[in-house]
């Protein structure tokens, strides 16, 4: 092992704490001089009690001041400028000491004793053997080389999508890419679970993915918008969590929209918190029927002559094709409100009413993402853009559409900032295998060699022999758990690097314990889309048990692989933070931002950088430049215009995604034959008090569980016909699987729909047995694993029929959050 590449390990290793302390004290001694003051450096006053220290750190659920007493993380206090701190903040210290933490590197007994591929059906049964880090590094390095040399780099899946912790440097995914790139390549994933269908179709019709864009400034919405259409959009809940550290400023604007008394419509099978907050009129369609409703709104706009023909001719192509379809000229079916009403079960008069409201004044359509996480998920978003184009308000202050109002507090005006770059995933080798659409992982494992369509190309599944997953929880996020568990027996080696004994870790061969973000030093941007802050993330406590920082783990493996000196370039954690920060500083300088230098930024553990918001950002209207001058500011589409009809998509010749938005029946829904057998549509929206599966293992869980399980919402009608009351333990089931859950009977959702939020931990009654019932309430034992279309191959988690019954007999104990025996 070379000496230089150990530096980062030394900084944070529990046995070598001296190095880290030296790092901090050096900084503290320089701070007095540096503290002359940069106008952007904010110093939070803090008076830590004697014997305690307070430092800033953060998570997807917010920034906090961590209080440390006698080396223990005892309290997390929310950031003063967090508009609405989340319930998880107070419980954050529990994560560090959780009973579900992986304490040591562990290897499945069968794998350790009999080698890769041995008894893969034993995965998940829970027999693990503790090994040393050196053994673990050796084992992983040997496997990476063996699989690469025997089967080629494509046989290694390192795509590893997931909501790793915040932090620009300690990025476990980038770190993995870096390792696998240096070792000769791997199969990466393309797309994501969040917006898999929308990002692909939007790129064709708007020339960019739209979904992660900054929205028009809320200030313009407050000033100009008359009607807000929340279409499957629930910002009051989904703004709780952010990809970078949130400040929840979007909530301030939601309050202002409510106070301004805007006309708000919510089209959602659920009465959402957002609809309640904004006093919205609630329209509750059948899930999966939105495209039909939108077609009927288009029909109504045509019939009532509310279509902005000038806008369509100047800024779009292909309206005539869509119009012919809406009027039934191409398929003989006129898309009238009566026609749509049979599909959506919204009264035709309501559909007409929605159309009239949308055409009356300035209308902002706020589209959520859940309905594109469904079969043919491209269609509703394509049709929403089409409707907005017909109304002629795209690029006009307060009008148009936006697909990110519920995410990252987009719409809060952008700050003039400098961004700390992240750790780079490194350069891909020349023979890098093509990437796989992420949600097709199970399919690929089951059908190696099979060729599928994907966005105009063909993709052939490699035969995955080794999976290395980090910073994501595949046995939480992937649909159809039982199908996946069969597939999960196929690879020879599965490596999971995580903080906790998630189901993914329990079903792995090699389990590597990572630190939480609170056990290392890092930095992260804050405020979401606004980019308002640059926060330091100061190490709160030493790494617990034998956990290591992700990057130290890869460094250990890289050492064994012989490129240790290249991996972290011999630089320490401090070196890296300084270097990344210096890039932001250079950016800031170019923009005339007076930022503190690194020592000043870092020396006070509760200071952070706050960037100024510009007047220009306050006035920002998305697509405003395009509207002003479509020739000078064309969209990135082939025509430079909005493609209501896309020749590119039409030429792909797909039956499940045609040249313009089309109503296509989903694989299963309340309108299908199958609803006779499974009469309830299960939606699995995002959990308000978690980020997916994260924090399910701490006591915040007590706030939302029912009978110790994930709550399942059911309408009064559906509950009473089944003899179910709030508090009952119920079985939720279909032909794909079954889970227990705690019933919550409510008037806040339409008949025929249930809500079981995603991310509840998979908790099989018989560990390791495919088809075993889940005891806790994991939605993905029930969902379908199918691509949304040949175009996107995205997940269709929200296309799912089930039934519910009261559990008779014994109620099994939840064990999802326990570590395997002896671990
Ligand atoms: N039914 C249904 N399924 C869904 C969805 C749905 O709506 N319905 N939504 C989908 C969507 S949009 C998404 S984005 C996915 C989310 O799926 P994931 O992103 O996979 O879900 P998380 O639970 O956030 O998993 C993150 C994992 O990373 C681990 N982790 C956190 N920080 C670190 C770190 O620093 N190092 C390491 N090594 N590990 C770390 C956590 O412990 C956790 O196990 O789920 C998808 N699945
Ligand atoms: N608190 C919290 N916030 C989060 C996350 C989290 O896990 N927790 N995850 C983040 C991530 S990764 C993502 S991708 C986003 C997800 O953002 P979204 O996908 O927009 O969020 P969801 O909660 O899945 O769904 C939003 C709404 O869509 C409705 N809906 C579902 N199906 C249909 C339908 O067929 N028609 C109509 N009209 N409405 C429908 C649901 O009832 C729900 O109210 O949220 C982000 N924010
Ligand atoms: Mo997501």
TrEMBL record:
Residues 680-800 form the Molybdopterin dinucleotide-binding domain. Its EC number is 1.7.2.3. GO terms for molecular function: trimethylamine-N-oxide reductase (cytochrome c) activity. Residues 101-559 form the Molybdopterin oxidoreductase domain. It comes from the Bacteria. It is an enzyme of class 1 (oxidoreductase). Keywords: Metal-binding, Molybdenum, Oxidoreductase, Periplasm, Signal. InterPro entries: Asp_de-COase-like_dom_sf, BisC, CT_DMSOR/BSOR/TMAOR, Molybdopterin_N, MoPterin_dinucl-bd_dom, Mopterin_OxRdtase, Mopterin_OxRdtase_prok_CS, Prok_Mopterin_Oxidored. Residues 58-97 form the Molybdopterin oxidoreductase N-terminal domain. Its cofactor is Mo-bis(molybdopterin guanine dinucleotide). Gene3D superfamilies: 2.40.40.20, 3.40.50.740, Dimethylsulfoxide Reductase, domain 2, Dimethylsulfoxide Reductase, domain 3. It is found in: Periplasm. Belongs to the prokaryotic molybdopterin-containing oxidoreductase family. This is trimethylamine-N-oxide reductase. The gene is torA.
